[in-house]
Amino acid sequence: MDLGAFVQENKRWLVGVGIGGLCWLIGSAIVQAIYDPGSAASAKSLKAPAEVYDQAALSAATTEAEQLAAERARLQRELAFVQGDKFLPAGKGALDEYLLQIGRAMKRTIASAANEREVQFADANVAWDAANGPDEIRATLFGLELLDEVQKRLFAAHDQVRSKAPEARGLRALLALKLDTRRNRGGNLRTAKPGEVDLRDLVMQEHVTFQFQADEPVLLAFLESLRVPDRTLVLDSWQVVRPTRVGEPCTVKGMLHGLAFKTAVEGKQ
What we know:
There is one protein chain. The chain is α/β, with parallel strands linked by helices. It has a single domain, classed as Ribosomal protein S6/Translation elongation factor EF1B (Alpha-Beta Plaits, 2-Layer Sandwich). Helices cover 52% and strands 17% of the residues. Helix 6 (133-164) crosses helix 8.
């Protein structure tokens, strides 16, 4: 084939090939200049970035993080109620049967303690709603542990006062000790907005309402007993109705709650 004729017929294609080859040569030269370990451009481009924080700043940040973690642990111990194995569902068999068993045993214990101390009490004064499904049963077991803890601390306050002053009236009547199911199941924790942490994923809490009659030393002793590391009962409300006659006991109404961190609960199950 005549070369001149070939060039004339394929001039546009040959020009494109030439331009492409030139671009490839230029690009190869640039890449080699950048990534060649001996070149100045490569040394400049691969140079390690300057340190944003020095060692002193890193040490200060580490120390602050450790202090915050320690403070968080302290506050958690002050506010949390760590459940005992007796009221955890793991290994207890059929949960509905175990809940009935625990509830009946607790009422018998309260009745026995009240009779020993001549404290007015009726079985119906301790109550909670029926629970359906594993989640509600688990929450109710937690609530029963709170009920159990309240009655223990009330009778302990009575014993403490009477041991120091045998003539004191002490605890006279346990009128109500109930799980506040409306608050417990009503989602009193605020629903998280998109992007926020939902507190219900982190903590479990149950509310207990109570009413009893006692003299003032028992009231003070009971209040002092609420704050126990890892077994704290948080007081929500407290109302004292003073007696109309001298020598009669005060009537106390209130609500408290227990707060359990789910990570701790799940770790024990």
